[in-house]
Design goal:
Elements: E1 11-15, H1 23-28, E2 33-37, E3 49-51, H2 55-59, E4 77-82, H3 91-97, E5 100-105, E6 117-118, H4 123-133, E7 138-142, H5 168-180, E8 187-190, H6 205-210
Parallel strand pairs: 1-2, 1-7, 2-3, 3-4, 4-5, 5-6, 7-8
């Protein structure tokens, strides 16, 4: 069914699990609508939505030894994507973990059709696309470093057990091209200090959260 525009008129914080995401950053976002990507929920357990595109993410164990898909720390809705060439069918994960699914297509621009998101080759892209389908036109990004920290860690918690190499150099051009095609009424502010994602204005988080709506 079409995705409902549940967040029309709201300012939404989209939180990725980059190395700049800290408890302090999370606390600043507490009284705002939050959409968390994968492990970002560990610092933002009050997020209204947690999104994980990879079905195996939901099987992965959280710090307490419980699969993310069953973690009581997630108090909001659990969402994933399905469909498209080379994409796992998430029906089994959806049944096991009560996931809500959005159809996805292999394209590198943001879908503005309420029937599907576009994958854009990374979870952050998909998360932004789903938030746009939820009707939000005022987005603030945190944890979108698009690079590793000084220790080579791509996430705020370090590394997965299997060391991850994230192709950030391939992601940034996809975001940039997609950003140029967005309607003028959509405002996205990147409140990630030192972010390598430069296609949207970069602003301190406090300023971004208190800026007048476009």
């Amino acid at each position: 069914p079409p995705i409902a525009k549940r967040w029309a008129g709201r300012r939404v914080v989209v939180a990725a699990p980059g190395p700049s995401l800290t408890p302090g950053v999370a606390e600043q976002c507490r009284n705002h609508t939050v959409f968390a990507i994968k492990e970002a929920y560990r610092l933002l357990p009050w997020a209204e939505v947690v999104y994980g595109c990879d079905g195996k993410f939901w099987d992965r164990l959280d710090p307490s030894g419980v699969p993310y898909g069953l973690s009581p720390s997630i108090t909001g809705e659990r969402w994933s994507s399905h469909g498209g060439e080379g994409i796992d069918n998430k029906q089994a994960w959806a049944r096991k973990y009560c996931l809500k699914l959005v159809y996805g297509k292999s394209a590198s621009h943001f879908s503005l059709e309420q029937t599907h998101i576009n994958y854009g080759n990374n979870s952050g892209f998909q998360a932004i696309n789903l938030v746009l389908l939820f009707g939000a036109t005022d987005l603030v990004l945190v944890g979108f470093d698009m690079k590793t920290n000084g220790k080579g860690d791509p996430y705020f918690f370090g590394q997965h057990i299997t060391r991850t190499v994230v192709p950030y150099d391939k992601f940034a051009p996809i975001f940039a091209a997609a950003a140029r095609r967005l309607p003028k009424n959509i405002r996205i502010i990147n409140a990630t200090p030192g972010s390598a994602l430069r296609c949207w204005p970069i602003m301190p988080l406090e300023e971004a959260l208190n800026a007048d709506a476009a």
